[in-house]
């Protein structure tokens, strides 16, 4: 069977200085131990963080469903993983509804101001230096995360927003234990965090990154969550939280003595009031015996993983030797990225050929390029999905623009069989670096995901900024069904490597006989239509490396790629939750009633 497409303000700096408190090790309850796999009944949660996973399990245990638990887990990640996600950011939510058998998605992507245009990141006709854009009000898009939570609960949840925010409020009030990853991420951001008093007060207590083992509290965020719980997200989109966001974006609260200038942004109260979560159809491909559902544009996640799967459909990967398996995996993602870079952007501004990118005919036309004997040369030109022709290309190659490696992913299943796969982000680790004073959360820098100028002169770029436009994402929360029944859900952080990570996890699990946990732990490589394939040291130590190099693959070492999580329904009805054993300090998997 081939892949079938079925598209489917002046700031009161003083208020900031009281917003975080730090205590000695042991001042709060220690988080539950991190476990990369858990098996049992009653529902399952996997996230990067033990407190967040425990928040989701608490909601499941009290009878909440997967959506209730997913929002509780996400809100807790906003406390314990504040540099990766939170209500200052956005994300994409995929939901399998056991009652209808349907998969639906929410696009809660951050959105440019309606006053933005394609020159958003140009000054005197020249693109801003990337880092100046990152740490600025200019890069802040209207956040979509709290609207996503509210919408998901309205559509599919059984608990109120106020109820599911309670565990996260508690963690924010009582504090969480700082681990090495959190400290490392703080150190990496210290130079800019120190220039924003509200950020420094929260994340540099005493002027330094918090010690490993100390307790970090965020009472401002607890209060913000309470306000959202009591008043709903109108407190953010049409109320006082929103007013604080707008003031902060338009006049970034930089320490006047720091010497830093942070460019102001354009987001205003009307932009916040106009924000809409888009409830949209997922991407769908039939891959072997499976139905694979993902996120349609504005993310490139579903189209790119889906196209790569389509390209691989006619190759018996389960029987291929390991070198050919890796070769085909790398080639399929190389080709899919050539097409993604040319054709995918916000579909309300660019006629994205989503169905065509996922069509079996296009997959066949692109698979034609792959030879068992030698690797393709990147950058590879895109194909034309609307007029697929075997081995043909359309126009010049379009380079990949820079994307970081931040973000966080969570996966939840409940006792009834509903599933959520949810990836959320504030873009770069630490986002814009700008905390909304008195509110306890960082603002995103998601708009730097736009191309600042056309990536290839003369070629239309679907990802230029525009009024009310969403920047192209790589987030790839995915749900897989088999025979109409839920099988698994997975996703990962990691910028553009998210796409290749999700693809590699799917291939490992569906084609190569790995368990979901093994597929998540496996050594990783990421080919995105670049001359060099990024690869982890463990991948480069594989015996297949030399054979792949003999085929023409060339590698660049990178410390780690992604930090996936997933859940899977086992044949005997138990749920397995799976998380990273090592990357990002290891993730946390749990089930309501463990039965090993
Ligand atoms: N902004 C990226 C995206 O939406 C994710 C950020 C990252 O993971 O570095 O694709």
Offer a concise description of the structure.
The protein has 21 helices and 21 strands.
Q: What composes the largest sheet?
A: 13 strands, antiparallel
Number of strands: 21
Molecules bound to protein: glutamic acid
Rg (CA only): 22 Å
Query: How would you state the average pLDDT, rounded?
Result: 94
The CA-CA distance between the termini, in Å, is 36 Å
Q: Helical element count?
A: 21
List low-confidence stretches.
1-27
Principal-axes geometry comes out as globular
Strand content: 15-25%
Helical residues, percent = 25-40%
The class by helix and strand makeup works out as alpha+beta
Tell me what the structure shows.
This protein is α+β, with helices and mostly antiparallel strands. The protein is built from 21 helices and 21 strands. The strands form four sheets. Strands 2, 3, 4, 9, 10, 11, 12, 13, 14, 15, 19, 20 and 21 form a 13-stranded antiparallel beta sheet that branches. A three-stranded antiparallel beta sheet has the order 1-8-7. A three-stranded mixed beta sheet has the order 16-17-18. β10 (283-287) and β11 (290-294) form a beta hairpin. α2 (50-61) packs antiparallel against α3 and α7 (166-174) runs antiparallel to α10 (219-231). The two termini are 36 Å apart. Mean pLDDT is 94; it is low at 1-27. The structure holds glutamic acid. The site of glutamic acid has 15 residues, from loops. Glutamic acid (GLU) binds at residues 403-407, 425, 427, 446, 449, 473-475, 493-495.
């Amino acid at each position: 069977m081939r892949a079938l497409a079925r598209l489917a303000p002046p700031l009161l700096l003083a208020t900031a200085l009281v917003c975080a408190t730090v205590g000695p090790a042991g001042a709060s309850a220690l988080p539950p131990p991190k476990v990369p796999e858990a098996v049992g009944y009653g529902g399952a949660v996997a996230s990067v963080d033990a407190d967040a996973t425990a928040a989701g399990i608490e909601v499941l245990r009290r009878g909440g469903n997967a959506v209730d638990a997913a929002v509780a887990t996400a809100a807790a990640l906003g406390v314990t993983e504040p540099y990766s996600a939170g209500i200052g950011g956005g994300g994409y939510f995929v939901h399998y509804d056991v009652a209808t058998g349907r998969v639906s998605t929410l696009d809660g992507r951050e959105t440019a101001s309606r006053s933005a245009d394609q020159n958003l990141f140009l000054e005197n006709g020249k693109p801003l230096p990337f880092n100046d854009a990152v740490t600025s009000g200019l890069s802040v898009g209207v956040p979509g995360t709290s609207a996503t939570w509210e919408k998901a609960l309205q559509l599919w949840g059984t608990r109120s927003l106020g109820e599911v925010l309670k565990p996260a409020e508690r963690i924010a009030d009582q504090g969480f234990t700082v681990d090495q990853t959190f400290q490392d991420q703080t150190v990496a951001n210290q130079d800019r965090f120190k220039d924003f008093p509200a950020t420094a007060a929260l994340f540099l207590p005493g002027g330094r990154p918090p010690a490993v083992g100390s307790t970090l509290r965020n009472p401002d965020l607890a209060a913000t969550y309470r306000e959202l719980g009591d008043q709903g997200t109108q407190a953010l989109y049409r109320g006082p939280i929103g007013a604080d966001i707008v003031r902060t974006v338009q006049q970034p609260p930089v320490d006047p003595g720091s010497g830093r200038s942070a460019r102001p942004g354009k987001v205003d109260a009307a932009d916040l009031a106009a924000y809409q979560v888009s409830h949209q159809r997922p991407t769908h491909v039939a891959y072997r015996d499976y139905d694979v559902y993902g996120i349609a544009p504005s993310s490139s996640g579903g189209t790119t993983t889906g196209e790569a799967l389509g390209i691989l459909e006619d190759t018996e990967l389960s029987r291929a030797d390991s070198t050919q398996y890796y070769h085909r995996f790398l080639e399929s993602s190389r080709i899919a990225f050539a097409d993604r870079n040319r054709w995918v952007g916000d579909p309300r501004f660019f006629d994205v050929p989503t169905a065509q990118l996922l069509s079996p005919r296009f997959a066949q036309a692109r698979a034609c390029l792959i030879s068992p004997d030698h690797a393709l040369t990147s950058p590879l030109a895109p194909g034309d999905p609307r007029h697929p022709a075997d081995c043909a290309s359309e126009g010049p190659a379009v380079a990949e623009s820079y994307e970081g490696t931040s973000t966080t992913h969570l996966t939840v299943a409940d006792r009834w069989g509903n599933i959520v796969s949810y990836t959320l982000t504030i873009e770069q680790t630490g986002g814009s670096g700008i905390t909304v004073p008195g509110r306890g959360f960082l603002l995103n820098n998601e708009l730097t995901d736009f191309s600042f100028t056309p990536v290839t002169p003369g070629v239309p770029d679907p990802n230029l900024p525009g009024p009310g436009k969403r920047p192209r994402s790589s987030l790839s929360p995915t749900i897989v069904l088999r025979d109409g029944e839920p099988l698994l859900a997975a996703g990962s952080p990691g910028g553009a490597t998210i796409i290749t990570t999700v693809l590699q996890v799917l291939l490992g699990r569906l084609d190569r006989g790995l368990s979901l946990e093994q597929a998540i732990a496996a050594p990783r490589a990421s080919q995105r239509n670049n001359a060099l394939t990024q690869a982890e040291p463990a991948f480069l130590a594989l015996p297949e490396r030399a054979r792949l190099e003999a085929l023409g693959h060339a590698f660049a070492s990178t410390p780690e790629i992604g930090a996936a999580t997933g859940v899977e329904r086992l044949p005997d009805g138990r749920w397995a939750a799976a998380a990273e054993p090592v990357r990002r300090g290891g993730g946390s998997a749990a089930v309501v009633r463990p039965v090993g």
